[in-house]
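Justification of computing resources. Each target in the renewal requires a structure prediction run like the one illustrated here; the chain below, 104 residues long, is used simply to show the kind of job we budget for.
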Amino acid sequence: MSEIRTPPVTAVLFEDRDDFFRSDIAGSIHIARHEDDPKEVSFWYRCPCGCGAKAPLSAGDGYKPVDGPSWTWNGSTTAPTLTPSVHHVGHWHGWLTDGVWKSC
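Resulting structure tokens:
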């Protein structure tokens, strides 16, 4: 399967977890803070390509958690940025920068 390239997709924030899981908006996100460390989050996203796949990323607010694959999040809910890039291997690969998903 070749990787899908998309035009830029604006990330839509869902504050409510259940609303996020009921939605089918490509590129939508939900940020769940960890109870034991509020600066560490589960950064849920729906694939920007529109396929409907959703997945969590382990991210830190201003830092990259050390356990396993993880991302640095800029802490913004209105213009979120994740580093490094997000890669669904063999499917979609790109960046979330200033609230917009962009294919590599």
